[in-house]
Amino acid sequence: MSTAEAPRTLTASPVLELQLDCRSEAVGPARHLATAFLEQLEPAVEKDAREAVILVVSELVTNAVRHAGGRACSLRLRAGPESVVVDVHDSSPALPRPRTPDVTGEGGGFGWSMVCRIATVVKIDRESAGKTVTAIIPRLGHGSS
């Protein structure tokens, strides 16, 4: 019988699921809980990738809050060996669309294009009760942790 240690690998796919009040006050707690979720993963998610996931969570939840009109929204994070999957569901049937950014800082327009640049995969699933936006971010960032 060998006494060698097994390599550190992710043996399960941890999941965080949150039902959110679809109000602006939900964005901060969503970021905080996503950060806590990422910090407990083994092996660790690289710093650049953690920051990317937090930014994507922030932008997608903000978009859901802004465009779902106060109705239900939810966040789900799934961690696999190679990536972290961010799913944000809201009850609005309207699809995200790129907008000309408002450089005065009052009207937004930066979030959707940032999500599309950061994630390796972005998809939108229309459902009878709204839509789910999914973004996949590699666990390995562009730099070292």
UniProtKB/TrEMBL annotation:
GO terms for molecular function: ATP binding; protein serine/threonine kinase activity. Signal peptide: none annotated. The keyword Nucleotide-binding applies. InterPro entries: Anti-sigma-factor_SerPK, HATPase_C_sf, HATPase_dom. The lineage of its organism: Bacteria, Bacillati, Actinomycetota, Actinomycetes, Kitasatosporales. It holds the Pfam family HATPase_c_2. It comes from the Bacteria. PANTHER family: ANTI-SIGMA-F FACTOR RSBW, ANTI-SIGMA-F FACTOR RSBW-RELATED. This is ATP-binding protein. Residues 24-136 form the Histidine kinase/HSP90-like ATPase domain. Transmembrane segments: none annotated. The keyword Acyltransferase does not apply. Keywords: ATP-binding, Kinase, Nucleotide-binding, Serine/threonine-protein kinase, Transferase.
